């Protein structure tokens, strides 16, 4: 079933751009991006080894048929490509082509490619335009929107990066047809997050329709993606550089980033899988610190259980043993830590979140050990 394409606008003081959402729209990419393509002297197409043959190659043909000068760059799939080594290699390729400040970078892939491509675009020649073409559910509902770009380092996740907005985001839900269930679950964690932090009615909708989203039912999938993008766009418009309300988007992420760091940012644990478990822990912490009802916390966990998410840390990564104290230490390097005080997003109720600092390590440790 085809669902009519929709547009969501991200309106910022210094710029604005559209998120185009539809099914089967990549073959019409040049129509949606006509303004950006007309201004581009050269185009760089960045993708990974999994996505390139599926979606970047047809897009390259479309651009070649238009007579555009094109450089296609492919990097290994997975979180490991958000590294200094890959960042340097790609940047050197661009500069030796060479690029100019009218060169357009198009990032085709999941969150890793979007983060890497956006960061490269932000620093190459002090900034070149770029377009996001997210091909995973997580990237479509979260990382492609809002201009957060970054790579990882030994000290932690996303610690080296910049705020740099794309000129356009093109979301083709047909890309999700080749996405494994594991990746769809990872993306859904970010969808349900929007209901938890600011839209109780959407959370209730997710409880009823979450399985349909994972199954790829067109109407449910489009509603979930559009609602998530509208929520993200509103938050980013209110707080582009995360000095206030945008921090709420980190619900579950203080826990999640510690979990990812503990396994070395490899594909044994996807970001969305870590976020889903982080949401469980954030809910449990909220019961202890912010008056979230035990029933509400249970409702979230029951929903996650029903969709097949791991219930305990021992089930999260096969063969890996998490140690609570070690996870606490990973949190020390989290970019949300301020003056040594760890930052958590907690829930007063479903749909009402806030930032909280100064939670005793002993309480966090207890919650991790119980998990």
Descriptive report:
This protein has 14 helices and 11 strands. It is α/β, with parallel strands linked by helices and 371 residues long. It has 2 domains: 6-178, Rossmann fold; 181-370, Dehydroquinate synthase-like, alpha domain. The strands form 3 sheets. Strands 1-2-9-6-5-3-4 form a 7-stranded mixed sheet, sandwiched between helices. A two-stranded antiparallel sheet has the order 7-8. It has a two-stranded antiparallel sheet with strand order 10-11. Helix 8 (200-215) packs across helix 9 (218-238). The chain is globular and about 60 Å long.
Summarize the main sheet. Answer: 7 strands, mixed
- CATH C-level name of the largest domain: Mainly Alpha
The percentage helix is: 40-55%
User: What is the CATH architecture assignment of the largest domain?
Assistant: Up-down Bundle
Q: Could you name the CATH homologous superfamily of the largest domain?
A: Dehydroquinate synthase-like - alpha domain
- Give me the count of strands: 11
> Which structural class do the helices and strands define?
alpha/beta
Strand content: 15-25%
Q: Round the mean pLDDT to the nearest integer and report it.
A: 95
- How many helical stretches? 14
Radius of gyration computed on alpha carbons? 20 Å
Termini Cα gap: 41 Å
